[in-house]
Design a protein that fits this description.
Helix content is about 35%, strand content about 25%. The protein contains 17 helices and 24 strands. α2 packs across α3 and α10 packs across α11. The structure holds adenosine monophosphate.
Length: about 500
């Protein structure tokens, strides 16, 4: 099944329902949205000699035209390659070449930079939005292209906290299973509900589009095209029934914004992509009510490894509430999860090992990278590279990746545990804990801190909450922590910075 069949169905049966918003303005109903996708599909297939399965990239900030492009591509039977517009032009060029993209839709501001480094296989660079884009939709609508469940729909480039990004091949089956799991496990959306895209549609937020189209809900793009705390809070206030995906740092900014919303105003904010510390989750629920849910996934099993639903986040009376908040939730209804040792053998409850995943949302493999595919999908299980443990209630807790683990004086210290404690201190805004090589201890604990506080205060705070051997031997105060373009803290970069500073 072509994933765009959900749009055709909505356009036919519920054409008058609102489908696309820009700020407060409704731009398209479902009949209009489906018509635009079908006409753009005609434009793509007839004018550019594209064949089913050819890759069409999108490099753009969030805009309503993103939705047209995505669905036009699918309607035509092509595969979409959404690329983060914040990447460096050289990184974008690398992905365009690796994906063997034939055509790219790009923001006006990016078209020239892309043209300068254009790979030989990229035949067309078109603007996303504007008159030329609209002109592509002036032909007759084409019938929905037939696609099989294993055909490529979305080539999802991983965020690459180390090394080159890889293209996870997401098929129509993967996206369908992912959408069902979202509606089952996280947010059973209804017609008229709204999804607000404040995070990049090329990545985290874009995956949420499909389940919302499946349920005839509205996709809304903020006028700023991104995350402005006040604009987002205004939108929630004016439009009840709104949900949003947010990176943990975005939620922190909403909590810190000097204004309140009446409880129940926000339908759902889903966090994921990086750990959210328990103190931050509690502060968010205190301020906005129990509207928060968590998803743990990766490009290779999008949105679908585990989920912590709103009713669990809000269940303060549960005896294990804090443990559950610190977890990544229950296993997604669409997959099986195995915690495995180095030989892929299943480990028992409470044991720590690599998280392996199997099921319909798991990618078909990495694009033109057999070696990485064989390694990552060994034995039919996705090897996530993440480390975790399952408790007796079936909740999955992520542990630090093995390379982040600190071994000091022969004892394992988990950076997340120390970070949680430091974040309880009211003056600490952000923190990342790493190991620094040390001749005596092997490694010592070092905390990089953003906040108006001094080392003595933090030391006293740690002494009151964790074992002495876990507390940082050094604090480094910084304006900001190194992050990638998706807001993930780059511990490798931090370790490099630390080594450099030590050598200076
Ligand atoms: P990406 O493929 O870019 O979405 O990155 C996926 C990675 O982000 C995962 O393998 C995890 O390491 C991390 N991640 C995703 N969701 C969560 C979460 N809810 N909590 C902690 N880490 C997460």
């Amino acid at each position: 099944m072509n994933i765009a069949a959900w749009l055709r169905r909505a356009g036919r049966g519920f054409g008058a329902l609102p489908a696309v918003m820009h700020g407060d303005r409704i731009l398209q109903d479902y009949a209009g949205f489906a018509q635009r996708a079908a006409c753009l599909a005609t434009g793509l297939r007839s004018r550019f000699d594209l064949k089913p399965g050819d890759r069409v990239a999108i490099v753009a900030k969030n805009t309503p035209a993103y939705l047209d492009a995505l669905y036009g591509i699918w309607w035509a039977g092509l595969a979409a390659v959404p690329i983060n517009a914040k990447l460096h032009a050289a990184e974008i060029a690398w992905i365009l070449e690796n994906a063997d993209a034939r055509l790219v839709f790009a923001d006006d501001s990016l078209g020239t930079a892309i043209a300068e480094r254009r790979p030989a296989t990229l035949a067309h660079i078109l603007p996303l939005g504007g008159l030329d884009f609209e002109a592509l939709m002036t032909g007759e609508p084409m019938p929905l292209a037939e696609r099989g469940p294993d055909d490529l729909a979305w080539l999802f480039y991983t965020s690459g906290t180390t090394g080159r990004p890889k293209g996870a091949m997401l098929t129509h089956r993967n996206l369908t299973a992912m959408s069902y799991a979202y509606l089952t496990d996280v947010d059973p959306t209804a017609p008229g509900d709204t999804l607000l895209h404040a995070a990049p549609m090329s990545h985290g937020s874009g995956l949420y589009i499909m389940p919302h189209v499946a349920r005839f809900a509205v996709n809304a793009v903020p006028l700023s095209g991104g995350f402005e705390a006040n604009e987002i809070l205004d939108f929630f206030e004016r439009r009840p029934g709104t949900s949003m995906f947010a990176a943990p740092t975005m939620i922190k900014r909403l909590v810190e914004a000097p204004r309140d919303l009446a409880p129940g105003t926000i339908r759902t904010i889903i966090w994921g992509g990086a750990p959210m510390h328990v103190a931050d989750t509690l502060a968010a629920v205190d301020k906005f009510g129990p509207s928060f849910a968590q998803i743990y996934g990766q490009g290779e099993s999008p949105m679908t490894i585990s989920a912590l639903p709103k009713w669990v986040v809000g269940d303060r009376d549960h005896p294990r509430h804090l443990d559950r908040l610190a977890s990544a939730g229950m296993i997604s209804s669409a997959v099986e999860v195995r915690i495995a040792d180095a030989d892929d053998q299943a480990l028992g409850t409470g044991e720590i090992g690599e998280i392996l995943v199997r099921g319909d949302p798991v990618m078909a493999g990495y694009w033109r990278n057999e070696r990485a595919t064989t390694e990552t999908l060994k034995g039919g299980w996705l090897h996530t590279g993440d480390v975790g443990t399952l408790d007796e209630d079936g909740f999955l807790t992520l542990k630090d990746r093995s390379k982040d683990l600190i071994i000091s004086g022969g004892t394992n210290i988990y950076p997340r545990e120390v970070e949680e404690v430091l974040l309880h201190h009211p003056a600490v805004r952000e923190v990342s804990v790493i190991g620094r090589p040390d001749p005596e201890w092997g490694e010592v604990v070092v905390a990089y801190v953003v906040g108006e506080v001094d080392a003595n205060a933090l030391d006293a705070h740690c002494l009151a909450e964790i074992a002495r051997f876990k507390r940082p031997k050094a604090y480094v105060f910084v304006e900001e922590l190194p992050k990638n373009n998706y807001g993930k803290i780059l511990k490798t970069a931090l370790r490099d910075m630390d080594t450099e500073a030590a050598g200076a």
